[in-house]
Amino acid sequence: MSSQHIAIIGGSSGIGLATAAHLLEKGYRVTITGRDAAKLQAARQNLNNDIATVTMDAAAFGRLGEAFQTIGPVDHLVLALGGGNGAGPFATVDLADVRKGFEQKTLAHFACAQACLPYLSKQGSITFVSAVSAQAAMPGTAGLGAINAAIAALAPILAVELKPIRVNCVSPGVVDTPWWDFLSEEQKEPTFAGFAARTPVGRVGKPREIAEAIAFLIGNGFTSGHTLICDGGIRLGQ
Ligand SMILES: NC(=O)c1ccc[n+]([C@@H]2O[C@H](COP(=O)([O-])OP(=O)(O)OC[C@H]3O[C@@H](n4cnc5c(N)ncnc54)[C@H](OP(=O)(O)O)[C@@H]3O)[C@@H](O)[C@H]2O)c1
């Protein structure tokens, strides 16, 4: 059992929430954050109230200092926040939406890591959650790929600049989470079936599988500057 404290920014849903559940089972103390207080409350009840919650907007850059002061000292930071802005065919994708994607994900991850530093243990770690759009050549993901590749680029640079703090990144493939709720249930099924057919393991991922990859990077003290691709092989482009 560990008494170490982990803050998960974007921990009220999907990958972040599964990571919170997995880390609680491993005996860590966990704080989850998100913008929607009701969602955080529901997540907390889902986890038997065994968790601290802090409502914060990771893209409200001027208020991050206050948010991390509220969270307090942390051993490990996980950045699991992000939405779907920036998706679409390169020829027509709305630049304002791409800009929003950078602000809501790349800059938000960057700013949270920066604001957490005064509270982060030197023996601890930062884990970014990027996306396989950074590694796979999928049409329609130029914006998402650029947004997520920029995040993956941070891991090796910060692993050196912030040493001995370890800095890593997980790059998930397609995972069944509320991220996909912009699709109706009728649309989701054929969409996931299409991704499954292009994925060597033959299915989309489960949030728990990404949580396990994040837990490995938190727990393994000799891994730093690494991007762990956890995508069922979809980047290999069948
Ligand atoms: N699902 C996939 O197929 C997939 C694949 C590759 C990469 N990813 C990446 O994995 C990460 C997690 O995605 P997910 O699938 O778990 O999505 P999700 O279920 O929609 O969860 C996103 C979480 O981030 C929080 N969040 C979003 N914007 C925020 C902000 N500005 N400030 C604070 N919290 C914020 C959300 O809570 P609030 O809305 O209440 O703020 C929620 O807790 C994202 O970065 C996504 O790009 C997902």
From TrEMBL:
Keywords: Oxidoreductase
GO MF entry, a single one: oxidoreductase activity
Pfam families the UniProt entry points to: adh_short_C2
Family classification: Belongs to the short-chain dehydrogenases/reductases (SDR) family.
UniProt name for this protein: Short-chain dehydrogenase
Origin species: Rhizobium tropici
Upper taxonomic lineage: Bacteria, Pseudomonadati, Pseudomonadota, Alphaproteobacteria, Hyphomicrobiales
